[in-house]
Each structure stands twice: as structure tokens, then as C-alpha cells.
């Protein structure tokens, strides 16, 4: 058993699943548990067996399907009901029999909640805690206790709140977790209260912070500063309302800023991958702007500082992105200079450092395109196609001759349905191809027509999927005559790439981005060119 | 001039615009400045005049187009170049001549950045500060000074960092702003360092926190705790990399948790609306999980606590959502409440308080439309048309029978030009009208065809101008089959109005919004209906 005098307790599968719109299957939960174990958290709270059939099944399947290297599973549940013995409460039995070696009990610690929500007395609540903990300890379970609404309760009636902590510790609880359930605390309150409770109770304390003030990470660190040695977090901060303390931000701060050994050797660098994989399973787009792991977390708008960054990147980043499995990215934006293009090209696998003339030509070309509305910030695939063109190895799987889209709606004002039909004419491997397809909109019709024209020759096209489509109108004040910038993202199951198209005509701009996204996809598949 | 001994300084338009993918037009910046002023921030940093033509234009137009009630505009720029006089530096002149009464100067305070990025000496850097501040003070400008990379610099060489603060204060700077430019700090460091710098310099201090550790809000509060009286924030936390301290979270904590008078009376309740309106303009989906203002911020999964919440909501929320213009939500779909619809109708000039049945019908209709992707947040004109329909006085200047758009591009890959042609069939004053027009895109062609069909009858149509057109793809993960929401803004020289259209087909959604915008425009002109 590794040392767990200080540990990370993950509750993505229980409290994180409270996030609005999240609905995890048992398979999802098993997959996430596996990732969290890889990341090296010490405890994984799996759910509430007995209260929720899906969670009961999770613990059953986990016992033979999960092979955990670092983590232990915890079952979550409540103390026994008022007026019965813990041994006779089926809910407690379900916890005991879940197979989890550790149980997290939730208990009321705010006397108002005891009286108004639980509708019992403060004394009976203490008895419920002592009795339930005692029963689980007798059966060899390790027990943590979540004090729900602790901070609000402490501010209202500190004596009662502390009596709950004492009762739990005396009954044999390992860690008493102080929960900011409503999430309204600020770090200074947390430091003060955790310090006072530690002094008054002598118990080992943990922290569970909700993010309603935007301070859950700081509140967690504030509790650690005051002596807490157990931190509850969720992957990507998923949780009810605003969310919970973000596992990755908390671990980042503890490991990189405070030098604590919170993860086993080698696990920290898995952070970015684990964050993104969990997001995929939960089916929420990964937050591009998440600390440490977001795709923008180490992105620099180059221009101004590019040359300085090249010389001394550490002056411009708060930590080395490689430590958390992320990368510095140079955004090719407005003020694109030679240095940033050179860095960007290197990132894409092209060494241009020896060719000043080529670099100059590229910079001019990019500036010109940016002036007409292009932006390569988010469109690496378009930038690579451009690079290859300037390097005299243009990507040419097909030549477009023309396209036409007809969209119409028949029937009255709110009735009828709009239909779109697209026709494309291409040269593919020396043959002229004409294809027509229908779609639920003009871009969808074009996408289908392009595929239909080429999928006989490039069968891999069927595996490429359009996963995102973004529209931005530039110069909002010129009305529908303004320039439209389209970003199209495709995926092939192994990765994603984004292309950009610009034009006065929204369909034309989409066409450019679509066409380039398919070309890049074919390049990724390794098709030879004519 | 109101008391500004403690104040909120917004830098959405300057530092917020550094967020990856954000690209604001001058019109966008003016609209955001107006919203921030409504929200009651004390200073609005508008950009860098002289360095960026768009920002120069912003300050020019702001002086006659913006009518600020609470805020003053600040121009941002750098201290003079090394080796010249401030009076001779065109960049400094651009700041002086921008018309902004306040200037924020950025200066290096980390000796490593002075030597390696600025490539000058520590002494010359101090002279650059003193000289530039002196010049601007002579010309009557109030000056704030941003100490870039302050905290990293202080940790490396505290004496030099403090000498920068002293030089600035002695030269006449009002507030010396300590910037965590790389965003790597944690609250405890901030409190300690701000306290030490205050003691060592005696200067009035401000704080600028980047969010790379997920602690920007807490870091801002930590600095205030240590004596800072100027807080720099951005709306929705927009900013480079992970972002900046979120204006709404910082104000929420200061006003609601610490009882500070940070905003003028009545402004706090605008928070949710302002947050969402800024997101619309920036064209980033509002974060559903943002503290205070997110649609999930006070959302409770009904069930477990539902009845307890109904009896005693304060036990389950950290603050009253009405204080920040948000609502508690019990059901996932429950977005439009009776009370808010009634309020909104009153705002538009309709008193519905006597008609509970009508209100119920309206709420149902709006919920249904919102579920299909509509959003009336920014589309008052569409909401008014809907209201009039439910009130049995629908606006019917014309009936649409059908539309068709043909777009095509002939010629090769990068050559040729896309053309669009639209045909509309309408009933106008009992006559069937067919009109066809060309445009530089499908929506432009539809706009022209609609006008061409009706301008003989409604001559005022010629005076209506399409001034803005926004596209938002909902559910970004379904590719081009996703639902598109269009916002169209028209103006008639006396005012502007916005309508919304939704559909799988981008042209169809645009058509709905265009048609309604014209109907509303005709209503404003006072044309009688048949």
C-alpha cells in the first residue's frame, strides 16, 4: 500500500456526474476510472451503490473488469436513517457489500439542514454517524466522511459543526472532509475555518470545494495550506451548477508550484491526454482554455514577442508545457513575423531556418491572406497545405472545376421545408467527374457531392467525418455583403484537423475549407499523388 | 467625478481581445464598451491607439459615438523607446492625442525582460518610465502603469521590481498595477508579495491576474486583501492563453461576499445580461457553467432536494440569483419563466400582468422555440413580433410563398468568382409578386430580391439598412447538419433592431430573420396593415 498521508481523491464518477447534461453509462464509468488510475489518483469514488442501479452494476463489474494500478475504489452513501440500527439499514448494507475497500459517508453538519431537511435532532444525527461508521469499521472498511454544507454550517453554529467532526473521528473515520457544498466560500474563509477546525478537533481533514465563486481550486489549496491532507476533485472540474475543484488544476498547482509528490512518478505528463480522453467519453468538447491542459493554455499570439520567445521560452510561460503533456503553440496572427512562421513551420515538421527567401515569401503570402480575412490561428491544416505549396510540393488529389448549389423553400411562411442540392465538377486522377447530392443545407449538400465524386477513387473518404463547422462574419457593419470566415474541422478517428475558407459568399468560403479539409485528410491517409 | 478610491478597471477590449480566435471590429468594440459602462465599471481600456489602426479608429469614433455614464476610457500603450525623448516618440504622441483622459502604460519590471526582450539597461528602463509618465502628466493625463511580469520579476530580483514601482509613483502615476503576466502565481504568493511591495514603495497598487493556474479570481481577491485598490478584469475572463480574471466573478465576490460598493446602485443585477450580450458580440457561446452568470450557475437537479429547496432556497444556494440577474432553475429545460416574460413584455410596451392564460401560452411558445435553437436574448424585434401574434395583432405586410437561391462558382481552384441569384415569390397587398436579384452571397441576394419585390409598395424599404449579420452554429459536434442560428440587425437611421432565425439550412435561417427584420422595419415606419 503506497503512502497516502497526503492524497488526491477523485469524485468525477459521483459528484462530477451531477453536471447538467452529463449521463454516464457503466461502460463510460469503467473507462473513466481506468484513465483516472493511469493518471495516478489515490482514490476513485465510483458512485452510490444501492441508491442507483447503474452504480451497483459499476461496482460489480469493476471488481473483475478493472485492474487498478494506483487507485482504490470508494463507494459513496449516506449514514443510516434516523431511528434504525446501521446493521439493519439496507442502504448501509449495500455500501458494505459493494466490494469497495473504502466507503465515503455523507453526513449533515449544518444544524439547519439536520432539522429542516433531515427532520431529526442534532443528537440523533451524531448517533447516526457514530453507528454507521462503527458498523463499517467492524466489517473492515476504511471510512471517509463528507460533512455536507460544512462551511455554511460552521458560520451559523460552529459548535455543532465541530461536534460532527469530533463524532466522526472518534468513531474511527480516517479523514473528515469539510465540504463547501453551496460553493460560496472564498480562500481566506477556508484557511481560517479549516485551521480552527483542525485545532478544535484534532481530526485529519479533507476538502471538497464547489466552484460557485470561481475559487474552487484556490479554496482547495487554501485548505491544504491550513492542514488538509485529502483533496477531492473532478476531472475537468465537472460537477453540479458551476462545477467542482478541477483535478488537473489542483494537481498542477500542488505538483508544479508547491513541489508535492501528489502523483506517482511519470503520471503528470499524462495530464493533457487524460483530460481530453475524459471529455471525449463524457461527450463535452474539451475546454480549449482550461489551465495546463487546454489547447490554448500555452498558445502565444506571436508577433510582438516571437523573437524573444525563441531565445528564452521560459520567460513567457509559467511552467514547461511538456511536464503536463501539452505543447507551446505559436498562433499565426495579424502581426505574423518571420520568427513566428519559422517556429510554426518547425512545429509542423518543416525546417525553414536555412531559407530566408522562402520564409520572406511565406510571410508575405500569409499577411496577404490575413488581410483578406484568413486566420491560420486555428487552421493548422490550411497552413500546412500553404507551406507545402510554397515548398513546391502542393497537395493535389483533385482539381475543382466548378460548383453550384440550389437551395429553396416552397410553401408558406412557417410551413414547408428548405432543401439544398449541390453539383460539383472535378478532375480526379485525370478523369472529369460530375456529381450531385442533396443535403439539409448548402454546405451539407456540397460535402456529400464532393464525397460522391471521389469516394470510388479514394475509399478512405468514407472514414473522414466533418466534426465541427464555425462561421464568423468579419466587419459586422457591412451587412450581408461582409466577408465570411469558415472553419471546418474533420476527424478520422485518430485525430482532427481544421481548415479555413474566406469569401463574400458563405457557400464559397465553406467550399474552400471543405475542399482543403478533404485534401488534408487524404494526405494523412497516405494516398500517393499523381 | 465619482469616488474611485477602489475601482474596477476593465480590459476586455485590449487584453481580452488577445483570446485565441477573437477578432473584434470597431463596431463590436463600441458595443461592448457601451455594455461595460451600463454594468458600471469605472475604467474601460479601449486598445492601443497608434499601434493598431482599428484601435486608433475606436478612440476617434468613441469620442462622438459613445455616451458613457459611469466609465472613463483608457488608452493603452508602452513607455517611450530607449534613447529618445518621450515628447519625440510617435507612439507616446498617439496615446496623448487619442482623446482618452486616462493612459495605461505598460513597462517591464522583470530585469531579465528588460535586458533580454527590451535589450536595454535597468536604468534606462526607469528613465523611460519617468520620462513618459512625466510627459503625459504635463499634458493633463491621468496615468496608470502596468508592471509586466511583475511577480516573476519580483521573485527573481525584488529590488529591481520595487525600484520600478517607486519610479512610477514618483513620476506621478496614480496606480501601479502589478501584473501576473504569465499567470503562474497562487493566492498565498500574491498576498505576501503585494503586502511587501506596498510596504516598500508606499505606492497605490492594482492587480492584473492571468488565469493559468485557475486562480485569477482568487489572486485578484488576494491582492485586494493585501491592499490593492484597482482590479483589472475582462468580461467572461476572455484573454490570452487560459484568460484573465473574470470581471463578473471578481465583482460578484467583492460585492456579494465582501460587501464592497464596487458598482453604482442597480448595476449588479445587469450582470447576467451583460455577460451574455458580450459573448454574443464576441461570437463565443456563453459559458453555461460560469460563476454567477452561467445558465447552470443556479441550476439544481430537481428530485433529491426539490421540496427542501422550495421551502428554504437559501439553504441550497450561495447567493440570491436575482441579485445578479440570474434565476434558480429546477428543470433542465425551464429557461423562460413567467416573471421574466412579463417583465420583458412590459419593457416592449405590453402589459400582460392581467392575463395569466396569455402569459402561460407565451411562455410555452417561447420554451418550444428556445428548445429548437431560438434565443430572444438579443432579438427584441422577433420577440415583439411574437408577442403581437399571440395578442392577435400579427404583423403581416407580406406573405412569403417561396424562395430559391442558386449559388455557383465557375473556373478553377483559386480563380473564378462565386455568384448568387435569389428568386422570391410573395403576396404583397393582395398581389402576387415574383422578383429575382443577384448578390455577392446567398443572403445578400435574398435581401435584394425581397426589397425589389416590395419597394414599389413600401418605398421606405430603401432607407432600411442591414447593419449586422451574425451566425452561430449550435451543437458544434454534428458538423454541417447542425442547427444554425442567425441574428440580423437592421437600422433606419433612427435606431436599430435585431431579429433571429433558426434552421438546419443557413439560408433558410437567414431568410426567417431577414423577413422579420423587414416586417419590423415597416412597422416602425408606421405603414398601415391590410
Automatic annotation (TrEMBL), chains A, B:
GO terms for molecular function: (R)-citramalate synthase activity; 2-isopropylmalate synthase activity. It catalyses: pyruvate + acetyl-CoA + H2O = (3R)-citramalate + CoA + H(+). Its EC number is 2.3.3.21. Keywords: Acyltransferase, Amino-acid biosynthesis, Branched-chain amino acid biosynthesis, Isoleucine biosynthesis, Transferase. GO terms for biological process: isoleucine biosynthetic process; L-leucine biosynthetic process. Pathway: Amino-acid biosynthesis; L-isoleucine biosynthesis; 2-oxobutanoate from pyruvate: step 1/3. It comes from the Bacteria. InterPro entries: 2-isopropylmalate_synth_dimer, AIPM/Hcit_synth_CS, Aldolase_TIM, Citramal_synthase, LeuA/HCS_post-cat, LeuA_allosteric_dom_sf, PYR_CT. This is Citramalate synthase. It comes from Streptomonospora salina.
Amino acid at each position: 500500500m503506497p503512502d497516502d498521508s497526503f492524497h488526491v481523491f477523485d469524485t468525477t464518477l459521483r459528484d462530477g456526474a451531477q453536471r447538467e447534461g452529463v449521463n454516464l453509462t457503466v461502460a463510460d464509468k469503467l473507462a473513466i476510472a481506468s484513465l483516472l488510475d493511469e493518471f495516478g489518483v489515490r482514490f476513485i469514488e465510483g458512485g452510490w451503490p444501492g441508491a442507483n442501479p447503474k452504480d451497483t452494476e459499476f461496482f460489480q463489474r469493476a471488481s473483475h473488469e478493472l485492474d487498478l494500478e494506483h487507485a482504490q475504489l470508494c463507494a459513496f452513501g449516506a449514514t443510516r436513517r434516523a431511528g434504525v440500527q446501521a446493521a439493519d439499514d439496507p442502504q448501509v448494507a449495500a455500501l458494505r457489500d459493494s466490494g469497495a475497500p473504502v466507503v465515503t459517508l455523507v453526513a449533515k453538519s449544518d444544524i439547519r439542514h439536520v432539522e429542516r431537511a433531515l427532520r431529526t435532532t442534532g443528537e440523533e444525527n451524531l448517533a447516526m454517524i457514530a453507528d454507521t461508521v462503527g458498523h463499517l469499521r467492524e466489517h473492515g472498511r476504511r471510512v471517509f466522511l463528507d460533512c455536507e454544507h460544512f462551511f455554511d454550517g460552521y458560520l451559523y453554529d460552529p459548535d455543532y459543526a465541530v461536534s460532527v467532526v469530533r463524532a466522526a473521528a472518534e468513531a474511527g473515520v480516517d479523514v473528515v472532509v469539510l465540504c463547501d457544498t453551496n460553493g460560496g466560500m472564498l480562500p481566506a474563509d477556508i484557511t481560517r475555518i479549516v485551521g480552527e477546525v483542525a485545532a478544535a478537533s484534532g481530526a485529519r481533514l479533507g476538502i471538497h470545494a464547489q466552484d460557485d465563486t470561481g475559487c474552487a481550486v484556490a479554496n482547495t489549496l487554501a485548505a491544504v495550506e491550513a492542514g488538509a491532507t485529502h483533496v477531492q476533485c473532478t476531472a475537468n472540474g465537472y460537477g453540479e451548477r458551476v462545477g467542482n475543484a478541477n483535478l488537473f488544476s489542483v494537481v498542477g498547482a500542488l505538483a508544479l508550484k508547491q513541489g508535492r509528490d501528489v502523483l506517482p512518478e511519470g503520471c503528470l505528463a499524462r495530464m493533457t491526454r487524460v483530460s481530453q480522453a475524459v471529455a471525449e467519453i463524457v461527450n463535452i468538447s474539451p475546454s480549449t482554455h482550461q489551465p495546463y491542459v487546454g489547447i490554448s493554455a500555452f498558445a502565444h499570439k506571436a508577433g510582438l514577442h516571437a523573437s524573444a520567445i525563441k531565445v528564452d521560452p521560459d520567460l513567457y510561460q509559467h511552467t514547461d508545457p511538456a511536464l503536463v503533456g501539452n505543447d507551446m503553440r505559436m498562433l499565426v496572427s495579424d502581426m505574423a513575423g518571420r520568427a513566428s512562421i519559422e517556429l510554426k513551420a518547425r512545429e509542423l515538421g518543416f525546417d525553414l531556418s536555412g531559407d530566408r527567401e522562402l520564409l520572406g515569401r511565406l510571410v508575405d503570402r500569409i499577411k496577404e491572406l490575413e488581410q483578406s480575412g484568413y486566420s491560420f490561428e486555428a487552421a493548422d491544416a490550411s497552413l500546412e497545405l500553404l507551406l507545402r505549396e510554397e515548398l513546391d510540393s502542393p497537395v493535389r488529389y483533385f482539381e475543382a472545376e466548378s460548383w453550384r448549389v440550389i437551395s429553396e423553400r416552397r410553401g408558406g411562411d412557417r410551413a414547408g421545408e428548405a432543401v439544398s442540392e449541390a453539383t460539383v465538377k472535378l478532375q480526379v486522377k485525370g478523369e472529369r467527374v460530375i456529381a450531385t447530392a442533396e443535403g439539409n443545407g448548402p454546405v451539407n449538400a456540397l460535402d456529400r457531392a464532393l464525397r460522391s465524386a471521389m469516394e470510388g477513387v479514394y475509399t478512405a473518404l468514407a472514414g473522414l467525418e466533418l466534426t465541427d463547422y464555425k462561421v464568423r462574419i468579419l466587419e459586422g457593419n457591412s451587412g450581408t455583403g461582409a466577408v465570411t470566415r469558415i472553419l471546418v474541422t474533420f476527424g478520422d478517428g485518430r485525430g482532427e484537423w481544421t481548415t479555413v475558407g474566406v469569401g463574400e459568399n458563405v457557400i464559397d468560403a465553406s467550399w474552400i475549407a471543405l475542399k482543403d479539409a478533404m485534401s488534408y485528410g487524404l494526405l494523412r491517409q497516405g494516398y500517393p499523388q499523381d
